[in-house]
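Weekly sync, protein design subgroup
Attendees: M.S., D.O., the rotation student, P.L. (late)

Item 1: inverse folding check
M.S. brought a backbone from last month's batch and wanted to see whether the design step gives back something sensible before we order anything. D.O. pointed out we never logged the input encoding, so this time it goes straight into the notes. Structure tokens as presented (85 positions):
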């Protein structure tokens, strides 16, 4: 299992467009990706779950990746977040 933290930089936080992009990215991988914010967790392959985190700018997401090629997947997701959030 790989775990890392990411601070949201998008002034609007997690909203529909970037959440949809994140889900498309995560669905490429054959592993489980979970997001956590303020004690709530969400499956990163489900739009409504990700949106329900209501993560705002400046808040920290904890991202957990478990499964096939988890180290590579964690690195790729971190890069994706840095470029889109």
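Designed sequence read out in the meeting:
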């Amino acid at each position: 299992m790989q775990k890392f933290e990411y601070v949201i930089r998008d002034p609007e936080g997690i909203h529909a467009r970037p959440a949809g992009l994140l889900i498309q990215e995560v669905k490429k991988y054959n592993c489980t990706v979970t997001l956590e914010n303020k004690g709530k967790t969400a499956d990163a392959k489900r739009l409504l779950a990700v949106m329900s985190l209501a993560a705002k700018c400046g808040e920290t997401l904890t991202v957990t990746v478990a499964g096939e090629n988890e180290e590579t997947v964690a690195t790729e997701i971190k890069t994706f977040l840095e470029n889109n959030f």
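Discussion: Helices lie at 16-26, 47-52, 70-84. The beta strands are 2-7, 31-37, 40-43, 60-67.
Action: P.L. to compare against the previous round before Friday.
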